[in-house]
Amino acid sequence: MPLSNAKPPRQARWPTWPAPPLAIPLVLLAALALGLILWGANALYQEREQRQRHQIERELQAISQLQARSVAEWRERRLSDAMALTDDTLFAQAVARWFAALGQEPDTDILGRLRILQERARYTAVYLVDPQGLLRLAPGDSAQGRLPDPELLALHNALAQAQPVMIEPRQADFFAFPFFSLMVPLFDGITPLGAVWLVSDVRTSLYPLLELWATPSRSAESAIVQRDGNEVRFVSPLRHAHDAPRSLRLPLSRSEDPAVQAASGVRGVIYGRDYRGQDVLAMVSAVPDSPWFMVSKVDVAEAFTDMRVREWLTLSLPISLGLLIVGSFAVFWQRRAWRRERALKTELQRNMRWLESAQKAAAVGYFAYDAAKESFFMSGMACAIFGVPLQTTLSRRQWIGLLHPDERAQTLDVHARAMAERTALRTQYRIRRASDRHVRWVEVWAEYDGNSEQSGQVRMIGTVQDITDRKQAEEKLATYRAALEAQVRQDPLTQVANRLALDEAVATEWSRALRSG
Prior knowledge:
The protein is α+β, with helices and mostly antiparallel strands. It has helices spanning 23-86, 89-100, 108-119, 149-161, 202-205, 258-263, 300-303, 305-362, 380-386, 396-402, 408-421, 468-489, 499-516, and strands at residues 125-129, 135-137, 165-170, 179-188, 191-201, 221-228, 231-234, 249-251, 268-273, 279-286, 292-299, 364-370, 375-378, 393-395, 425-432, 439-448, 459-466. The chain folds into 4 domains: 88-201, Beta-Lactamase (2-Layer Sandwich), CATH 3.30.450; 207-305, Beta-Lactamase; 358-466, Beta-Lactamase (2-Layer Sandwich), CATH 3.30.450.20; 473-516, no CATH class.
């Protein structure tokens, strides 16, 4: 078609008018008012944030003090049990009589008192030991063996000081759980008889006291720490470190950690970075009458998230008004784009329906191969040809598994060469359909997508068609043609080669004679 020399019509433009004299002052006034609103909102936000911060700190302080008081009362109850047992002269006299009468069964009063301590005072184990540290008696089971070294040292100190000695929580092979114990000395007058070893499983007696929190929290935790030389040892397990307390120790050089600050003498509400490297809000306090320190902490990100959300909601009103003003000017211009987008979507859906109908009519499906992901995206008709479920992304490994074994190597070579050389692909091969494993012939026409290089993706897009019926027809036609040629070369009555066969034989021999000279 010849090109026309007529000039295209000029596109209509929106007319422009000069700004009215009051437009600029009004804009400046609006900007000033908006700035004042934002400044006032920011000042209000800072003031409310500071108030909320103090409230959160007070709540954490109350929780930590309550937990520290509970732990102190727990230690005091254990010490009270020990002092009452030391002052029990009747029990000491009964033990002295049993030790003096070698080989006799223990007095029921002794066993009863030990059993009361274990059952009512909720001690995990109670042992009667002699001054040499040998286990002599326990309620409910036989007592054999010798005290571990730390407990043996505590026994000597208790007998020397004539008062109970606490052994801090530790993990040892003697028990299968971390335990806290007391060595309670017994005296017959001024003669040391031995001691009662009170053992408590801290998993069920002490650790639950640290789980008291007013509200559920993802990061909140409380821990008992103790200074051990130039390190800080965690006495209780940590919520985010399952190997503590047996292995988690922090050097005093980690000054930003609240646990280290507690061992260094810091008290009260502090901000720091814990053993996970997270910024935390912590409350540090000392447990009375003990070498322990209570550290209760929560992640800063979690502690102040709700507060910041509430404050931002307060500021959302002026911000929303400003955005509403700006958005009202943009709505008019966006309406055209929205209408055009809806029209394009409608047209695209109509074209896709036409394409699907055309595929079904021609038994042709389309696919797109992504070399980076090694996967095929296939249309519904292509999925039906290969016998895979609809909306299936076929991996390269799955596609190779569907290829006929006799043609697998050749087909892979053809595909690889087409991808490497960026050339069109025209090939036919057999597959075993995934749904019923029937052998089918397919014909593939594909081309390399040149636009994919700009996005960094190597793709090949093409069509696939089931040509099994055509191949079967071609095979039947070839068989029929061969039978006809055989009948032409041989007389059907005499079964003797005819003149056509003789002419072909003479031509063959003549060509051979010419080549041989």
